[in-house]
């Protein structure tokens, strides 16, 4: 399957050649989420990580084969991780059943051909296919919806429903909510549930691809309104309890499909 690729090789709906440059400054693997992924991988020794980016969530105690189409993301991989293969989910260059397990984190919503990519993950893995993603039915519950509805509408449109993922993967599938810790070091939007000031940083927004699909006017309105609500206490009067809430049950889910 021939996919359209951008100048840096990006193969999904976001152009990481444009937005990926500072990804690792804001998006680091959150250890408590990594633990949940590790559990789901079970005793898999060989793991293919698709849409691997800069290597977040790649287990250090397994033999990982990363696949990542964007050169700008591959360039941010730490030297102690395996070199990523330039490839796409839709066309994995491996024989059937090559790996004990397959994983993909924060990526399926970007793929050009979701079903083809899922079938490829299923094909190359003998055991679990583990997917960290968001449930589109839950993304608009976040307070950000009040300030930048366009961004969460974009997210809700992009993320596939869990039922679609489980249906295409087949086998025995579980969908488990992933609690987000207050000091989450992986800066996806909901990670800032109790630290709203952090989203005033344009770099933090750029590390979340949904913000690249909305106009500058949305960024400006968001920043102006949130800053005003932080200064005059409006945000805290509505959501201030979140500043000390240890975890947040947002839209983050982990899907685990075994054949
Ligand atoms: C938000 S980043 C996540 C990166 C990494 N998995 C993480 O958790 O930090 C999404 C990644 O999916 C990759 N991606 C997008 N479309 C893809 C496709 N069709 N096949 C493989 N990877 C793709 C992007 O290049 C990008 O690196």
UniProtKB/TrEMBL annotation:
Keywords annotated in UniProt: Methyltransferase, Transferase
SUPFAM superfamilies, A to Z: S-adenosyl-L-methionine-dependent methyltransferases
Superkingdom of origin organism: Bacteria
Domain Methyltransferase type residue range list: 50-126
Keyword Transcription: no
MF term (GO), any: S-adenosylmethionine-dependent methyltransferase activity
InterPro entries documented for this protein: Methyltransf_11, SAM-dependent_MTases_sf
UniProt-annotated stretches for the region Disordered: 53-77
Xref: Pfam families: Methyltransf_11 (PF08241)
GO BP terms in the entry: methylation
Name of the protein in question: Class I SAM-dependent methyltransferase
The organism's taxonomic lineage, starting at the top: Bacteria, Bacillati, Actinomycetota, Actinomycetes, Pseudonocardiales
